[in-house]
Amino acid sequence: MDKKVTIYTTPTCGFCKMAKQFFAANNVSYEEKDVLADEVARKEMFDKSGQMGVPVIFINQQTVIGFDKPRISQLLGI
User: 18, 50, 69, 77 — which has fewest CB within 10 A?
Assistant: First the structure.
C-alpha cells in the first residue's frame, strides 16, 4: 500500500534535508511544502499540527514532528 507522505520544510532546515535524503534512499515519494515561501502551506501546517517549527511530516493521517527516523520507519513499514 502506498503511503501519502507530505513534508513541510524551509530551505535552510537541516533536519528537513535529512528527512528528504532518508525518503530518497528508501524510494519514498513525498510532497514537499515550503512554509517559508507558501503562506497557505504554513497556515495548513500550523492548523494540522500546532507546530511552527519544521520539519512536520504527515504519513497518511499520522503526524511526525521533526526528523524522528524510528517513528517514520515504523509508519512507512521500512
Answer: 77
